[in-house]
Amino acid sequence: MAPNILDPYFVELYPHLPPEQQRSGVDMLKAKCAEIVGAGSTEEQLVIMGQADAVTLPEDKRKAIVAGGLDQCYWQLVKFLRVGNHTVPHEPANF
């Protein structure tokens, strides 16, 4: 089972935050995704995601947890970008 990176209801509150806080949230989530992707091993990725207790699972299950967590991060990022009223500078997608 993939970890919950963010509260699923946060996306409802997000549009009501000031634009600079929205941009900060997007930047922090992008940085977290990059940190997870850039980790040197699946075990390291699990620790970053707060799932250190899963490092003893078989490799296929560890990879599935990491993939599910990243899917949630990317889903949340897309929702933030879709519902936010912040200004996003034009930059190429990096994931």
Task: Write up what this structure looks like.
This protein is an all-alpha fold and 95 residues long. It has one domain (10-83). It has 4 helices and no strands. The protein has helices spanning 10-13, 19-38, 42-48, 59-83. The model has no long low-confidence stretch (mean pLDDT 83).
Write the layout of secondary structure elements.
Blueprint: H1 10-13, H2 19-38, H3 42-48, H4 59-83
**Largest sheet features:** none
Structural class: mainly alpha
Radius of gyration: 14 Å
Strand count? 0
**Uncertain stretches of 5 or more adjacent residues:** none
The oligomeric state of the chains shown is: single chain
Name the helicity range: 55-70%
Percentage beta strand:
under 5%
User: How large is the count of helical segments?
Assistant: 4
What is the residue-mean pLDDT, rounded to a whole number? 83
Structurally, how many domains make up the residues?
1
Q: State the end-to-end CA separation.
A: 23 Å
The topology string of helices and strands comes to HHHH
Give the overall form: elongated
Briefly say what this structure is.
With 95 residues, this protein is mainly alpha-helical.
Descriptive tags:
95 residues; elongated; mainly alpha; 59% helix; 4 helices
